[in-house]
Amino acid sequence: MQAAVIHRYGQTSPVLETVPRPALRPTDVLVKIKAASINPVDLKIMAGELKLLLSYRMPLIVGSDFAGEIVAVGAQVTQFQVGDAVYGRPRKNRIGTFAEYIAIDPDDIALKPQNLTFAEAAAIPLVGLTSYQALHDLLNVQPGQRILIQAGAGGIGTIAIQLAKHLGAQVATTTIPRNFELVRALGADRIIDYHQEDFAAVLTDYDAVFDTLGGQSLESAFSVVKPGGQIISISGRPNARFAKAYGLPRWKQVLFHLATHRLSRLEKQRGVHYQFLFMSPSGQELAQLTRLIEAGQLHPVLDRTFPLQELDQALTYSRNGHAQGKIIIQIA
Ligand SMILES: NC(=O)c1ccc[n+]([C@@H]2O[C@H](COP(=O)([O-])OP(=O)(O)OC[C@H]3O[C@@H](n4cnc5c(N)ncnc54)[C@H](OP(=O)(O)O)[C@@H]3O)[C@@H](O)[C@H]2O)c1
């Protein structure tokens, strides 16, 4: 099969190679991938930026989510059958969706929403699960709560705004004027042009911030949230609490503790709870998203679609950092 492969960290242009089709374990399904999506984590993995959290053997097929059709099921699989249209986010040591086939644990997939094409469905798994885990599982967003979602026009932002509205929240978001119409249509109540306005100066007493930017934006988020409120970051630094819960060795916990002392100080000063989220694959939660999508509560926002042969251009486009929603790779 054709697959996009890197042979070492730092190789930021994967090469399309012919590799063997993945072997099917008795507990796996084999999926013929129709479409995949680009996620910034793909760029970070290739650059070797996540080595403290995820380390991979080389050569590595890249790509973190997909939609496709099951073409074989392992002897022990009961919940799916050949011909099922599915989508999913493989677990961390089994990525590789920029390829014609993937063997995957059925716990990591769900039936594709019937009202979406494969390309549309491929836009959902990683950003949908991340947003669901942040807003539903961790923040437990309640009707009437006020939340700031950073980067509303991005892959995460376009889904997170819709989910937060579905949960009944009042949503503020940051973006550039070109995207105002888009984020308004998704449900944003307060839109901040981050080149013109400092969100930390105009938003106060929020219940929560969903931070997708990290760095100074994350630190500034502490002045937006009221005491007792919460900040979830998916781009900031993992703290020691996260490192412990994630099962990292003691020396990494210490490293993360030292790297986040400013955030710990802000937590204490402001009486705000900070958590780093590293999303996890979950077919069960993806099935919840399927229900929301089929009920018309949630829809993917697609920017551009590239064929697998133009993966490099798609990655460059993603690296530029101004996509409106998701960038899709059409594979079959
Ligand atoms: N920890 C996890 O489990 C996890 C999971 C998923 C994603 N992430 C991380 O979350 C981040 C966002 O992911 P994504 O998929 O949404 O990325 P993305 O689709 O590439 O986000 C691009 C968007 O960011 C916006 N943007 C850039 N700079 C901005 C700023 N200063 N203020 C507001 N908006 C800004 C751009 O909008 P404009 O054109 O308006 O600038 C663009 O729409 C990435 O760093 C990714 O690695 C982490």
TrEMBL record:
The lineage of its organism: Bacteria, Bacillati, Bacillota, Bacilli, Lactobacillales. This is NADP-dependent oxidoreductase. Keywords: Oxidoreductase. Gene3D superfamilies: Medium-chain alcohol dehydrogenases, catalytic domain, NAD(P)-binding Rossmann-like Domain. GO terms for molecular function: oxidoreductase activity. The keyword Chloroplast does not apply. Its EC number is 1.-.-.-. Transmembrane segments: none annotated. It comes from Levilactobacillus angrenensis. It is an enzyme of class 1 (oxidoreductase). Residues 10-329 form the Enoyl reductase (ER) domain. InterPro entries: ADH-like_N, ER, GroES-like_sf, NAD(P)-bd_dom_sf, Quin_OxRdtase/zeta-crystal_CS, YIM1/Zinc_Alcohol_DH_Fams. PROSITE patterns: QOR_ZETA_CRYSTAL. The keyword NADP does not apply.
